[in-house]
Design goal:
heterodimer; A: alpha/beta; Rossmann fold; 14 helices; 40% helix; B: alpha/beta; 8-stranded mixed β-sheet; 12 helices; EC 1.2.7.11 (chain B)
Chain lengths: 395, 301
């Protein structure tokens, strides 16, 4: 293990290399592009044994990755935003085939209008696809979860693909201290590739052809059950990771609690701004406001028991960096479904790169505690003054 | 070639009990092609009749490992398989099996990308000139004048000439074939399998239901398409064009059978007028003029 100052994209590229990925289908899209550039450079320098397929679209990136994985090797790809939406069909195809694949999503707003900055709507739009979905809050975690992903997806209790979300620019491009494990450490952690079916002329099985309604529904149920079974696999993989690979981190649970034990109020967040929320909480605690943070790390599987245990007696504020139009924030609806009788409020903010830092977090939490009306959409003060300029006739 | 009946019968790559319609040209094509391909192949089947012909999963009438994928994903998925097989040190050919809709329309970008990268895969397009699996709608490969369920009064535009598009990609091997000429098709597939790099074979597959002819006449229609020179048989290997013996007569318009003979044996051209026939003939003439120039070495795509 060694210490390096690198970006989230660098950290993920290193994770791919250390996991001995054999094939990766690559296509550029901001803000994950640096991952695939970094892999290409490593390949050119002879440091990477991975076959790189430089495809012509994200749909093909996932298709090529899927084909390689189905043929029996570790396969990886990365995408973001429009790219994830473009590959949406193949994202489903992989999960429906129960084939382990790992993907990074450098989260970003979805157009129109064009916006390259961060939000979580692209990632959250894949909640129903059958993938395991983790979300990092630091470059360190992006790397850790990416390595763990191979172990989790290739466990016979799971056999599902996994995507790791990472806030675009905020994590993907920001350099920070990361503990990078050695090849030996990762080798001792990742077993050889396992998967439910392999394309092999010596055993000519067919994958994905027409199923009877009964068989189809059984397969759907198996995906659901594998998602639920993956919870214990994730915890095992996390504990083992801390033992063998990187001894820092908090991977013995799916999600993470911060100062929640004695808290009256809980703020639920996901991703990089969890750390801003934690800072805000630290400062609010000095004002004798008993508030803590609950950080969602796994959107799928949903850690129902953990969520209920952590939040059941508290007033809950859920911050969403994404929106399901006409309904509200996705995390809000998830938390609400776990605690139907609890006092829960949801706030949507930070969309399309609107900057939400520690001070904005404090303002949101204070408003929540004071209970004014109409804080479902929160804008920082300086943004609040700006009028919508386009489309022209919409008030 | 030395393929006797015994060899063919012993292959068993197309199992009994497919869900194909009577007279299905794709079923015929699979029998011929699998005989030529033999072992060490993995099939990628994109959405189309062939996703259905193989029968209800998890069983399959195609005795190959098969990855069924989404419509536009075939060439990319095959690229991934080829890469994986390379890293495993296995000599296995990844074969894409797609219809003309999956090829000329929705899969074009993916096909072009795989060709540009010169992936070591074999792409087979079984061309029945419409979306037959969904009931016979027009595709980019439907010829001018042909009526389909979405062009009831006849298609207004020419067939997209995909073999020419593929030749323009300068891939190592491009060929056309017809289920009416099994030996020609078999030879081409055998050759394509040995090519290192991208090869493309488009097989004309006359469909009794979409084209509206008796299911017993599939081979006859497939032959007439070649004899009237509507469908050329050629192969393009490393920039050199070879015309198959079966249609050398097409190089000269005077020795071609009239195209009407091909049109009148099927129902989809029933309503065409002389103007449309003329336009179809112009398409055929122009195609053959290009092929003639390439054949003489005076044109390179």
């Amino acid at each position: 293990m060694m210490e390096k100052v690198i970006s989230g994209n660098d950290a993920v590229a290193l994770a791919v290399k250390l996991s001995r990925v054999k094939v990766t289908g690559i296509y550029p899209i901001t803000p994950q592009t640096y991952i695939i550039e970094s892999l290409s450079e490593m390949k050119d320098r002879g440091e990477l044994e991975t076959e790189i397929i430089r495809v012509e679209s994200e749909h093909s990136a996932m298709a090529a990755t899927f084909g390689a994985a189905a043929a029996g090797v570790r396969a990886y790809t990365a995408t973001a935003s429009q790219g994830l939406l473009y590959m949406h069909e193949m994202v489903w195809w992989v999960a429906g085939s129960r084939i382990p694949v790992v993907m990074t999503v450098g989260t970003r707003a979805v157009g129109p209008p064009w916006n390259i900055w961060n939000e979580h709507t692209d990632f959250m739009s894949e909640r129903d696809s059958g993938w395991i979905m983790a979300f990092a809050s630091t470059p360190q975690e992006a790397m850790d979860l990416s390595i763990m992903a191979f172990r989790i997806t290739e466990d016979e209790r799971v056999f599902l693909p996994m995507m790791v979300g990472m806030d675009g620019f905020i994590l993907s491009h920001t350099k920070t201290r990361v503990y990078v494990p050695s090849q030996e450490e990762v080798d001792s952690y990742l077993p050889p590739r396992r998967q439910p079916y392999v394309l092999d002329p010596e055993d000519p099985i067919a994958m994905g052809n027409m199923f009877s309604p009964e068989d189809y529904m059984k397969l759907r149920e198996s995906i659901h059950r594998a998602q639920i079974a993956s919870k214990e696999v994730i915890v095992e993989a996390g504990k083992e990771y801390m033992k063998r690979v990187v001894p820092i981190g908090s991977y013995s649970t799916l999600n993470e609690s911060y100062k929640l034990e004695d808290a009256d109020y809980a703020v639920v967040v996901m991703g990089a701004w969890s750390l801003d929320a934690m800072q805000a909480v630290d400062e609010l605690r000095k004002e004798w406001l008993k508030v803590g943070v609950y950080r969602i790390r796994f959107v799928r599987p949903w850690a129902e028991e953990e969520v209920v245990k952590a939040l059941k007696d508290k007033s809950v504020l859920v911050l969403d960096r994404s929106v399901s139009f006409g309904r509200g924030g996705q995390l809000y609806t998830e938390v609400k479904a776990s605690l139907p009788d609890a006092d829960i409020k949801g706030v949507i903010t930070g969309l399309g790169g609107v900057s939400i830092g520690k001070n904005e977090m404090k303002a949101i939490i204070r408003k929540f505690v004071e209970r004014p009306q109409g804080i479902e959409w929160f804008y920082p003060k300086e943004v609040g003054k700006i009028e919508l300029r386009s489309p022209r006739y919409i008030k | 070639m030395s393929l006797g009946v015994r060899d063919i019968l012993n292959k068993h790559k197309l199992m009994p009990g497919t869900s194909a319609c009577p007279g299905c040209p794709e079923n015929i094509a699979m029998r011929i092609i699998s005989t030529a391909l033999g072992e060490n192949a993995v099939f990628v089947v994109v959405a189309g009749c062939s996703s259905v012909i193989q029968g209800m999963g998890p069983n399959s009438a195609y005795n190959y490992p098969i990855l069924n994928v989404a419509f536009a994903a075939g060439p990319a998925a095959a690229s991934g398989i080829a890469a994986a097989m390379r890293t495993k040190g296995k000599n296995v050919k990844a074969v894409v099996w797609a219809g003309d809709g999956g090829t000329a329309d929705i899969g074009m970008a993916s096909l072009s990308g795989a060709a540009e990268r010169n992936e070591d895969i074999l792409y087979i397009c079984v061309d029945n000139e419409a979306y037959m699996n969904t009931g016979g709608q027009r595709s980019g490969s439907t010829p001018i004048g042909a009526s389909t369920t979405t062009t009831p009064s006849g298609k207004r535009h020419n067939k997209k000439n995909i073999p020419f598009i593929m030749m323009a990609h300068r891939v190592p091997y491009v060929a056309t074939a017809s289920v009416g000429y099994p030996h020609d098709l078999m030879e081409k597939i055998k050759k394509a399998k040995e090519i290192r790099g991208f090869s493309y074979v488009q097989v004309l597959c006359p469909d009794p239901y979409g084209w509206m002819f008796e299911p017993s006449k599939t081979a006859e229609v497939a032959k007439l398409a070649v004899q009237t020179c509507y469908w050329p048989l050629f192969e393009y290997e490393n920039g050199v064009l070879r015309i198959s013996d079966e249609c050398l007569h097409c190089l000269d318009k005077r020795t071609r059978k009239p195209i009407e003979e091909f049109l009148k044996i099927q129902g989809r051209f029933k309503h065409v007028d002389q103007q449309k026939i003329k336009e179809l003939e112009e398409y055929v003439d122009e195609m053959w003029e290009k092929l003639r120039l390439m054949y003489k070495g005076n044109l390179k795509l």
